[in-house]
């Protein structure tokens, strides 16, 4: 397959919206095709009016460059597909279009960039020459119908296409590295908060374009530069923005390595435990903690230094949850706590000592603070992970936690947003898991039975719509039902016992999943 640059990640948007945005670039390109890529000679003082990127800031220019690059990348892939089918007319017209896009991209970039390197200029020339050669090859294919000649030329064109893609990828990599270096130079050399704020904003925009960009920024020393800001009191006003950018960059292994090198976790612990910082700063520090402790990360070498500072970090996060003035702040702090409970049971013990269960249960009754399924997902994750400890049972009873878990069993999304629907399913599944774990304790099981938990679980098992057809919710509900049935066998009808409790779990699961089909 054709090697295309991995830096072409753009945030997924509605296809019509993408087409509308790209239309301007596409039509510019078609005009350029007619003009054979020759620029119109104009007066110097009018030049800026006709340059596509002149009206934009550096961030906008980079966005424009990435969009143009995305179009080129897509076109190169399509050329490879058409070439495979020997659609020579289409191959040629698309090659001409790519040629024009490449020239436009290079011209646009050179109008707003400063001090680009000799290496970049050489690569630009190589790419333009190779694109011209590519267009000449495909044009020659239109002038013959001899299958033998076309077959032999196909391998030449394939080779040229691969080289164009390779040069293009190298150029984009070089351009993005150059831009990251420029922004980091501004951060390093400027003492002006205003200039630094603009540069940090530029870095954040770059980091939003995906993991590849984050790797470039980390490799160029972005994490080191940003933590340097977070250690200087005179730049306190920049802390929230700086920490937000760090959270984006630290999603990649290179970012973690840099964080470890500069003792970033100690710096985060210092920020979180310093009460003189604003809530916004604390919340963004919590976001970095949530990022670097994500259970989805495969690299965990940084966690050894995290364990050394864990107690004070957990204490500060619990305080932030308790004092949160908004749902967003609570979400960031609780997400960090939820992730921490996954990788060390000691965190659960610390949370127990800090009375965290009571604080989290109280927060759930405040709809202003715990206002989305995402927040409830974090809370129930913490409860599920803490419920492995025997001492949690009495805390749950005291905080009216069984009632809350019962409510969470029927979490419903208020929209059809897929991520919100998925969050609701996680809340349902984890609340059932927590009930199953806590029902080891007779007092919790008794409270659950009195609150009609058994009929609720049966309803979720038997009605696919109630659990949004989720298999994971079904398995968790069957497990919780079986645990409660042991503690209170009188609470079940005989048919429920025979179908949902007595058989092997897998047989009950298959029975419940087939119910959906029988109703249709």
UniProtKB/TrEMBL annotation:
Entry-linked Pfam families: Insc_C, INSC_LBD
Residues covered by the Protein inscuteable homologue C-terminal domain: 68-520
Single annotated GO MF: cytoskeletal anchor activity
GO cellular component: apical cortex
Gene that this sequence comes from: Insc
Record domain Protein inscuteable homologue LGN-binding: where: 11-55
Alphabetical GO biological process terms: apical protein localization; asymmetric cell division; establishment of mitotic spindle orientation; regulation of asymmetric cell division
Organism ancestry: Eukaryota, Metazoa, Chordata, Craniata, Vertebrata
CDD domains: INSC_LBD
Name of the protein: INSC protein
Classification via InterPro entries: ARM-like, ARM-type_fold, Armadillo, Insc_C, INSC_LBD, INSC_LBD_sf, Inscuteable
């Amino acid at each position: 397959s054709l090697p295309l640059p991995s830096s072409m990640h753009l945030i997924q948007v509605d296809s019509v919206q993408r087409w509308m945005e790209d239309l301007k670039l596409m039509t510019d390109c078609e005009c350029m095709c007619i003009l054979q890529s020759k620029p119109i000679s104009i007066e110097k003082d009018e030049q800026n009016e006709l340059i596509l990127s002149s009206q934009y800031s550096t961030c906008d220019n980079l966005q424009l460059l990435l969009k143009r690059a995305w179009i080129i990348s897509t076109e190169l892939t399509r050329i490879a597909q058409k070439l495979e089918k020997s659609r020579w007319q289409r191959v040629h017209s698309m090659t001409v279009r790519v040629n024009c896009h490449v020239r436009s991209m290079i011209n646009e970039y050179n109008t707003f960039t400063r001090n680009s390197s000799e290496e970049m200029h050489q690569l630009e020339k190589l790419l333009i020459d190779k694109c011209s050669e590519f267009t000449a090859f495909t044009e020659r294919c239109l002038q013959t119908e001899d299958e033998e000649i076309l077959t032999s030329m196909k391998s030449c064109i394939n080779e040229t296409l691969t080289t164009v893609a390779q040069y293009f990828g190298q150029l984009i990599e070089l351009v993005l590295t150059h831009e990251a270096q420029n922004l980091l130079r501004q951060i390093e050399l400027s003492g002006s908060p205003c200039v630094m704020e603009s540069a940090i904003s530029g870095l954040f925009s770059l980091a939003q374009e995906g993991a590849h960009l984050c790797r470039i920024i980390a490799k160029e020393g972005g994490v080191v530069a940003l933590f340097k800001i977070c250690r200087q009191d005179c730049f306190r006003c920049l802390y929230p923005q700086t920490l937000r950018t760090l959270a984006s960059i630290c999603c990649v292994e290179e970012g973690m390595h840099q964080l470890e090198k500069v003792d970033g976790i100690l710096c985060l612990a210092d920020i979180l435990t310093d009460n003189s910082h604003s809530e916004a700063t604390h919340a963004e520090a919590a976001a970095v903690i949530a990022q670097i402790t994500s259970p989805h990360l495969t690299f965990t070498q940084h966690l050894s230094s995290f364990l050394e500072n864990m107690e004070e970090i957990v204490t500060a996060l619990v305080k932030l949850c308790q004092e949160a003035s908004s749902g967003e702040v609570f979400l960031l702090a609780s997400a960090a706590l939820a992730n921490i409970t996954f990788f060390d049971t000691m965190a659960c013990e610390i949370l127990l000592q800090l009375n965290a269960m009571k604080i989290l249960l109280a927060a759930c009754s405040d709809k202003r603070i715990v206002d989305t399924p995402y927040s409830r997902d974090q809370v129930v994750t913490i409860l599920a992970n803490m419920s492995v400890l025997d001492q949690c049972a009495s805390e749950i009873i005291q905080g009216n936690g069984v009632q809350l878990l019962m409510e969470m069993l029927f979490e419903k999304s208020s929209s059809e947003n897929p991520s919100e629907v998925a969050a609701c399913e996680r809340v349902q599944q984890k609340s059932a898991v927590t009930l199953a774990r806590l029902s080891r304790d007779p007092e919790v099981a008794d409270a659950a039975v009195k609150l009609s938990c058994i009929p609720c679980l049966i309803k979720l098992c038997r009605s696919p719509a109630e659990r949004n057809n989720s298999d994971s919710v079904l398995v968790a509900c069957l497990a919780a039902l079986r645990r409660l049935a042991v503690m209170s066998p009188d609470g079940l009808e005989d048919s429920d016992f025979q179908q949902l409790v007595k058989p092997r779990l897998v047989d009950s699961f298959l029975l419940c999943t087939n119910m959906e089909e029988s109703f249709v």
